Every structure is written in C-alpha cells, then in structure tokens.
Amino acid sequence: MGYEFIEGNEAIARAALRSGCDFFAGYPITPASSILQHMLELLPAAGGTAIQAEDEIASIGFCIGAAMAGRKAMTATSGPGVSLYSENIGLAIIGETPLVIVNVQRQGPATGSATKGAEGDIQFTRWGTSGGLPIIALSPATVEEAYVLTCAAFNFAERFRAPVFLLSSKEVSLTRERVDLGALELPARVERARAAADREYVPHAFAEAREVPAFADFGGEHIARYTTSTHDQRAFLTSDPTTIQRMIDHYEAKISGAEQELTLLKRDFQEGAEDLCVSYGVTSRSVAAAVREARGRGRKVSSLVLQTLWPVPETALRAACAGVRRVIVPELNMGQYRREIERLAPPGVQVTGVNKMDTTLISPREILEKGGLL
C-alpha cells in the first residue's frame, strides 16, 4: 500500500471497511463529521449502506436495527451526540447488540468548544446510560492506532455481542500523519457466532454467566425477539427477581470476566523505577517525550499506556504499580481515570494527577514539572 498522509478520521473509516463494516449512520458534528463524509464516499462503493440521519438519536437507532439484522454497524459522533445516544446505548447493552460507537471527544461540557480538543468523556462513556452495566472502550493515540483499534473494536463487538466505544479525540482524528496502513499488524477478523439453523433459537441463551449467546439475524431462519425492557433468555418480558438478577449477572460477567482478553496496552518499564506514568490517548505522546527526557537526566521512570480503558485493566495496573512509590496520571480532563488508579494502587503509593482542560495539549514540560520528574 505504501505511505500515505491521512487524518485519524479517515483511518477509522478505512479500518471499518477493512473489518467488514457494511452499515453506517451518523449526523454531522465537529470533530467527527469527516468520518461521516468518508463513509458516505467509501461504503456504498464497497456494497454497504451509509446514511446521514436526521439526528443522533436516529443514527444510533438505525445502527442497532442494522446490527440486529446481521450487518456490521458503526456510528460516529462527539460529546453532545453521545448524550443523545444514551438511551439507545442501554438498548444495545440489554439487547446484546454488536455495534461500534466512535466518540471523537472535544471540549465540553454541553456544546463546549466545537473545534477544540479534550478527553473529558472518559467516565461519561462508562456511566452514561442507566443501569451502570459495563461497556468496552478503546483509546488511540495516533493515526496508526486509530486504524488498528477500530479493527479491534469491531472484533470485540462481534465476539461479545456488545457496543464497543472508540474514544478518539479532536487531536487524533483531525491530525494528519504519515502512515503505511498495509504494513500494520492487525488482529484477525472476528465474526459473531451464529445460531444453528436446525435448532431452536433462544436470543439470550447462556449456561454460564460469562457465555456469549449465539446470534440469529432478524429476517433469517429463526424468530428473533428484541426488547428494551427486562427480559428472560427468550427475550420475553419478566418481573421475576431471580431471572432479572441472572440476566444482569450475565451482562456484567461477559465483559468484566474477559478482562485479560480485552486488555490492550503498551509497556515501557525501567528496572528499579520508583515513578510510573500511566496515560492514554493523545496525552501518552507527551508522556513518551517526558519519560525520555527524565531518563536522560538520570531519573528512572516507567510508562504504561492504556489502549483499553473499559473494562479497567486491573491486573496489569496492579502489577505495574507494585514496587513503585508514585504514579503520575496526566489527563486532558480534571482527573477522571486517576480515580481508577487510586482505587487499585497499593497502600503507600502516591497517585499524582497532571490535569488541564483549557483546550490545549499537555506538554512534556508540564508533565515533568507538575509530575515532579525534574
């Protein structure tokens, strides 16, 4: 394929096609609009369907319907659009719907600064729909990672029959970089497990809570039921407490119980380091530069870059925190993911945040100074 000079949003759109995406619906919103543009240009030519919907609620609704009819679906928006997605995200969770949701984060709250960047939707992504059930969310730092993690997002959506978020940002999505997409190491494509045609179909069948049910396309060989209300494994409404709890345990266990499979990260550990930087998204690029400078000054510093934010990579974080005295967590928000580090860090380990949300990036110098690495 050779090198190209492309933005993150184009990489996301092309990775979606590479993953077999054949349905997209979205509504224009800065800084996610060019994903819609690319999908409108690329997807019909590849035999798929791309729709500019009348609003964000319709966009995700179209995608849920398409996904349940057997399509690989994706939608893309920014913070205000995710607010409107909220109820349908819950529907995708309770209906076990494979779906990729791209959130190109921008400065908030509310309309905020439409053309300015931040990474302030981290906790909102996890807790932004009723019920508090777990979701899967990935965070790229570069155009290359936007491509690779989009492929991973589709795989996870298919594998776990669940909505998967790609938490990009204005800086990643609208920055052009020189990349060779054909040279990237990509995960093998995963397809959802489909129900056997010669057996009775139970839409949410599982024996063990962690088991992911087989899927039957709406309009296919089986009668398929789908509801936004509490239901049993056959998708019939129920008010039985035992049945309801069993279904809730299932939604929880199939995601939280797959922590190891879902964990994607990058380690740059230094033997004897007493300081550890934990970062994600575009800020991890400043962290890399800060760590190099600190080491050049004789400081021993380790770095852990999280590409999976939800479910929290608890095993990896606990292991990384063992033996250090301090964890530095730079974030383009007021300290959202630091809460998870504080929860997991061993007693006596100091957790220090480096935070700003003024629409500018955190510089390596700010990490060195505010993180106490000078």
For the sheet with most strands, the description reads: 7 strands, mixed
Q: Looking at the structure, what is the overall shape?
A: globular
Distance between the termini: 43 Å
Order of helices and strands: EHEHEHEHEHEHEHEHHEEHEEHEHEH
Mean residue pLDDT:
97
Number of discrete domains: 2
CATH architecture level-2 label of the largest domain: 3-Layer(aba) Sandwich
CATH topology of the largest domain: Rossmann fold
- How large is the count of helical segments? 13
Largest beta sheet: strand ordering = 3-2-4-5-7-6-12
Q: Note poorly predicted spans.
A: none
Q: What do you see in this structure?
A:
The chain has 13 helices and 14 strands. It is an alpha/beta fold and 374 residues long. The chain folds into 2 domains: 4-183, Rossmann fold (3-Layer(aba) Sandwich), CATH 3.40.50; 265-370, Rossmann fold. Strands 3-2-4-5-7-6-12 form a 7-stranded mixed sheet, with helices on both faces. A 5-stranded mixed sheet has the order 9-11-10-13-14, sandwiched between helices. A two-stranded antiparallel sheet has the order 1-8. Helix 1 (8-18) packs across helix 2, helix 3 runs parallel beside helix 4 (79-94) and helix 10 (283-296) packs across helix 13 (364-370). The longest helix has 18 residues, at 143-160. The relative contact order is 0.12. The model has no long low-confidence stretch (mean pLDDT 97).
